[in-house]
Amino acid sequence: MLLTKNGSKVLLDSEKLYVGDTWDFTESISDYPASSYTVTCYLKYQTSATISIVGVADGDDHQFVKTAAVTAAYTAGKYSYQFVAVDGDGVKTTVATGIITAYDALATATDSRGYWAKRLADLQTAYTNMAGREYTEIEIAGRKVKYSRTELLSALSYAEYRAEREDRKLKGQGTKKIKVKFIETS
């Protein structure tokens, strides 16, 4: 959960958004009640157009809805968000910001593997198809590359390492590194 500038909690951080599903969430922002403010949630994915979801009053809460037909056109990934409250005089206040992930719905036909998992599969296929040849030319992510058996084994090892890290990150497990910082006290 994220705290707004004035200490109110924003629940969007606890939501799971899926591309192609209806997005429906309610925010209770005590310092910006729906009786006095209109709150808009802005979502931005990389260089895509900004998505605006205007909150509808539900008592003093704000309800935000995007239909499944609309979200189906969105891209899965990390979105930056801002909640902006506007009072009756038109004064705008950004009340909360953060980052949320929109996930692919499993019912869609997209490949949900990460970048490195896809590259690892490409390299494994290339190695299997090498079948006794010393060099092979393969296509990875639309690029033709010529590998020796040794280079391909090295690339496989690196891709396995990166795919494992990518998987751990997606599961929220982080890396195996422990970082330590020593500071001098006076």
Summarize the structure.
By secondary structure, this protein is α+β, with helices and mostly antiparallel strands. The chain is built from 3 helices and 12 strands.
**Mean pLDDT figure:** 84
Estimated helix fraction: 10-25%
Question: What portion of the residues fall into strands of 2 or more residues?
Answer: 35-45%
Order of helices and strands: EEEEEEEEHEEHEEH
How many domain units? 2
CATH class type of the largest domain: Mainly Beta
Radius of gyration using CA atoms only: 23 Å
- Terminal Cα span: 37 Å
Note down, in words, how this protein is organized.
The protein has 186 residues and is α+β, with helices and mostly antiparallel strands. The protein has 2 domains: 2-104, Immunoglobulin-like, CATH 2.60.40; 115-170, Head-to-tail joining protein W, gpW (2-Layer Sandwich). It is built from 3 helices and 12 strands, in the order E-E-E-E-E-E-E-E-H-E-E-H-E-E-H. The protein has helices at 68-71, 115-130, 149-170, and strands spanning 2-3, 9-10, 17-19, 23-27, 37-44, 51-54, 56-58, 61-66, 77-87, 92-104, 135-140, 143-148. Helix 2 runs antiparallel to helix 3. The longest helix has 22 residues, at 149-170. The model is unreliable at 1-7 (pLDDT under 50).
